[in-house]
Amino acid sequence: MDDRREGAVPAVRVSDRDRDEVLAVLATALAEGRLAPYEHASRAEHALRARTADELAPLVADLPEPVPTRAERDRKDLSDWLAEWRYWLGGALIMSAIWGARCAQEGELTYYWPVAPLGVWAAVLVAVAVWPREAEDTDD
Q1: SS3 state at 96
Q2: Under a CB-based contact definition with an 8 Å cutoff, are residues 96 and 114 in contact?
Q3: What is the Cα–Cα distance from 76 to 82, expressed in whole angstroms?
Q4: Quick check: 98 and 138 in contact, CB under 8 A?
Q5: Percentage, residues of the chain above pLDDT 70
Q6: Rounded to two decimals, what is the model's pTM?
Q7: Alpha-carbon gap, residue 79 to 84, rounded angstroms
């Protein structure tokens, strides 16, 4: 039930966990004022009685995606940062291969020019890691 926007498979039976996820989305919508209490109660009742995915999907289809928590945002930021280091490593390999091929062509070791772009790129990545983030919200 993670992706409520896609069409559900009608024959798939739902688990208690699926129902709990829908109930959590409904509770959040109630707390945010997106659902009236009577509508929340009706949808929650339908969620508890749902047996298949096609019965659960319409209960949350018109509600917005939940806002990610601070921990989820931090986890995604870390994942993106680590992915950028993998790109850096790929760039280092490509630039070093070009440098090595040029040295082999000339028959002597020359200045290792990849140090400049790789150093700047690494400095930016380190700065992103240590630079203080803006406090987006303090309630998490």
Answers
A1: helix
A2: yes
A3: 10
A4: no
A5: 89
A6: 0.53
A7: 9
Q: What tokens appear for 48 in the block?
A: 């508890």
Number of helices followed by number of strands (H, E) in the chain: 5, 0
Structure tokens at 71: 């921990």
Instruction: List C-alpha distances in Å: 4 to 71, 87, 125, 131.
Output: 22, 32, 35, 36
Per-residue pLDDT tens over the stretch 48-64: 999 998 898 899 999 88
- Phi and psi torsions of 10, nearest 5°: -65, -35
Q: In the beta sheet, which residues pair with residue 13?
A: 52
What kind and span of H or E run contains 11? Answer: none
Mean predicted confidence (pLDDT) in 25-41:
91
- Tokens 């993106």, located at residue: 80
Residues in contact with 7: Cβ distance below 8 Å, sequence separation at least 6, in sequence order: 57
Residue 13 has φ and ψ, to the nearest 5°, of: -80, 145
What is the sign of the dihedral through the CA atoms of 99, 93, 123 and 87?
Answer: positive
Contact predicate 38/76, CB 8 Å:
no
pLDDT digits (tens, 9 = 90+) for 88-124: 999 999 999 999 999 999 999 999 999 999 999 999 9
